[in-house]
Amino acid sequence: MEDLQLNVPLLRRRVPNLTVAAKAAGLRPATVSNLCTGKIPVGRAEVRTLVILASIAGCTLDELIIRGNGRGMIETGIKVLDLLAPIVRGGITGLVARPGTGQMVLLAELLNRLGKRGYTTLFWKPKEEGPGIEEVVEEADGICLSLDEAVHQILHFREEHDVILAADRAIVLSGEWYTLKERIKEEGARPLTIFLVDPRGEAVDVEAPYGPLDTLIRFDMELPTRQLYPAIDPILSTSIILEGAQLESAHLAVQQRARKVLRRYRELRPMLQIQGADKLGEADRILYHRGERLEAFLSQPFYTAEPFTQRPGQWCSVHETLEDVKLLLDGKADHLNAEELKNIGRLPL
């Protein structure tokens, strides 16, 4: 019950003189005030009080009460992200890539998937046109062309939905991002989750291209040469959810095992290409091939790419991803070759 909050912006917008209205409905103004400020947790409020507040606001209890307002994980159905770099609800995610590695494709796919999951998706469109911009525009629920438009749409939609805002890194460099944060502060509002991208590909050469991030998604230029998409670096991409151990222990255990295997696989890959597999010890040879399978398995068809690939997009729940990755790590898929695991959903076992 601790993750329940009152939707204060919605309440205040629909009931301008809340104190008077609450008193007229038989509620103590002090109680209502304490609920709005959080001094009284929603979980400890009387059901009668909440029902009356919903009634005078002309909304349902589901609209009045925000559930799960904590900074947990947003499930995307994208295996590599949910496993290795989970998106933080209410956090800032930065996509760092050189041109042509697929950051705008991934952004469009994220807006597509999260829009279907009940999030309102907004795109603060850059002033300059560039590759992939129009694809992102097509997937967004709303388009913002200025700071004022972004503030207006965020405040409007977040009363009833979590909002996803995708924007160019330029808003950080210009200072507009900090102005936006100041203008959208509201008690009890639903979370605003930010995706920052760099369409020009300049951020990859900067040490801290977006400032502090909750999730870093770094792209790997080598993966597309082997037709592995999304081309997300499984070692350098990470999330504070993993560092803060905010996930279930089973998830963390699989994630840590997977990253360890992938790191060693990447160390062995150049050696094997030069010297051949015969130069590897038995343990390293087994680990190498499991890492190769895992790397291939973390590729995945996207919904937004269906017209080009003629391959249906795949959604893999976190539970399914963890289950399949564990099987791979345990050697249960050693009879499969890496090519069979490219661009699929679940393991073909």
UniProtKB/TrEMBL annotation:
Query: Where does the signal sequence lie?
Result: none
Record-linked Pfam families: ATP-synt_VA_C
The record's annotation in Gene3D superfamilies points to:
Bovine Mitochondrial F1-atpase, Atp Synthase Beta Chain, Chain D, domain 3, P-loop containing nucleotide triphosphate hydrolases
The listed locations are: Membrane
Q: Which UniProt keywords apply?
A: ATP synthesis, ATP-binding, CF(1), Ion transport, Membrane, Nucleotide-binding, Translocase, Transport
Q: Where is the ATP synthase A/B type C-terminal domain?
A: 248-317
Q: Per its UniProt record, what PROSITE patterns does this chain match? A: ATPASE_ALPHA_BETA
- Establish whether keyword ATP-binding is in the entry: yes
Q: Does the keyword Ion transport apply?
A: yes
Q: Which family, according to UniProt?
A: Belongs to the ATPase alpha/beta chains family.
Q: What is this protein called?
A: ATP synthase A/B type C-terminal domain-containing protein
